[in-house]
Amino acid sequence: MKKIVVLILFLFVIKGQAQFTKSMFSKTPIINLENWQKKRLYFGFYLGFNSYDFKIDYKTVGPDINVKKSTGFNVGLVSDLRLQEYINLRFEPGLYYTKRDLFYPNFTTKNDALREVNSTYIHFPFLLKFSSLRTGNVRPYLLGGLSATLNLSSNSKSKDDNSEQRFRVKPWTTNYELGFGIDLFSEYFIFSPSIRGVFGLKDELIRDNDPNSPWTGTIESLKSRAIFINFTFH
């Protein structure tokens, strides 16, 4: 399934690149969906990829916890409200799957040293989109805003902690987001690849029952960091 999705996205990227080249270098490009940007409200969907990390601050100086990242998958919806000619308000709720492995130093067994953090997020971002002037069938834009994230795999209600190999985080987090993208206007729809950074604002970690736990006792704060690459279709 992932290979099929990647192939479809790759084909759209190739088509978008051809459209971009034609719009930039043709003297008289055909203007697609000329009145689309005048719509007050429109909808779409996106598919994409993510790479989640943790930013860890420590109470004392010592060996760092190593975080191994992996590539996750995103899918969601887009609603876009035009506030004025160059500014839109976007709501992009989506489902995000990701995995991070935490490797703790100073342990001799894998069961103690490794914590696999599988996460399923429902992500609720409210973003402002600042678009530039349209050139042919190309329109770059910047994105920024705030988001809230519900972690369905947080283990927050579990009484077990790391001593029973259960890593726990808070179910809700808040973030700020910054990114950029480009609208490519085809004959029938708009294809918008974008890249965005997501930065957690609050500590997510639930401490172990033992205040001196070797897994959580030295951590001052643990916050998510992520990069999203989304391919949006309007």
Per-chain topology:
Elements lengths: L1 H24 L15 E18 L7 E4 L1 E14 L2 E5 L2 E10 L6 H4 E18 L6 E14 L20 E14 L4 E11 L18 E15 L1
Antiparallel strand pairs: 1-3, 1-10, 2-5, 3-4, 3-5, 4-6, 5-6, 6-7, 7-8, 8-9, 9-10
Kindly list the characteristics that best describe this protein.
234 residues; mainly beta; Porin; 2 helices
Give a short summary of the structure.
With 234 residues, this protein is mainly β. It has helices at 2-25, 110-113, and strands at 41-58, 66-69, 71-84, 87-91, 94-103, 114-131, 138-151, 172-185, 190-200, 219-233. It is elongated, with a radius of gyration of 21 Å.
Characterise this structure.
- The two termini are 22 Å apart.
- The longest helix has 24 residues, at 2-25.
- This protein has 2 helices and 10 strands; from the N terminus they run H-E-E-E-E-E-H-E-E-E-E-E.
- Strands 1, 2, 3, 4, 5, 6, 7, 8, 9 and 10 form a 10-stranded antiparallel sheet that branches.
- 12% of the residues lie in helices and 53% in strands.
- The chain has 234 residues and is mainly beta.
- The chain is elongated, with a radius of gyration of 21 Å.
- A hairpin with a 2-residue loop joins strand 3 and strand 4.
- It has helices at 2-25, 110-113; strands at residues 41-58, 66-69, 71-84, 87-91, 94-103, 114-131, 138-151, 172-185, 190-200, 219-233.
- It has a single domain (2-30, 41-233), classed as Porin (Beta Barrel).
- The model is unreliable at 4-8 (pLDDT under 50).
